[in-house]
Amino acid sequence: MAPATRVIHAATTGATLALIGEEPPHRDLTVSARLRDTVLVSVTTDAPAPTAPDLASRALALDAALTAEPPTARPGLPLRATETALLREWLQQRAG
Questions:
Q1: Cα 96 from chain centroid?
Q2: Number of Cβ atoms within 10 Å of the Cβ of 4
Q3: Could you say which DSSP state residue 46 is in?
Q4: What is the pLDDT along the chain (96 residues), one digit of tens a residue?
């Protein structure tokens, strides 16, 4: 199934179930039309591609965050030193 078909199917199924779940006097039938318009825009337009400088700046920012403190000072970071080193290498490649 094509991605656009999946999105449309998921949206219409969700809208139908949401409307069925509401009491008739409280149903807002404009939700269906607004959802339709939103889905059509999302499947007929391309998402903007990230620009190279934006990607590079994000990679550099994450790399800087990884090196700001030693791994032992980041107990919430579930990466071993070797994994962190590999991630930093990838980030530096993306940063150019």
A1: 24
A2: 13
A3: P
A4: 688 899 899 999 999 999 998 899 988 888 888 898 999 988 888 877 666 668 888 888 888 887 766 656 556 667 778 888 888 888 888 887
Q: How far apart are CA 64 and CA 68, in angstroms?
A: 6
Sign of the four-CA dihedral 67, 69, 73, 74: negative
Identity of residue 59: A
For tokens 């449309």, the residue is 8
- Whole-model pTM: value is 0.46
Residue 54 tokens read as 């934006």
Q: CA dist 79 to 16, 70, 71, Å?
A: 43, 12, 8
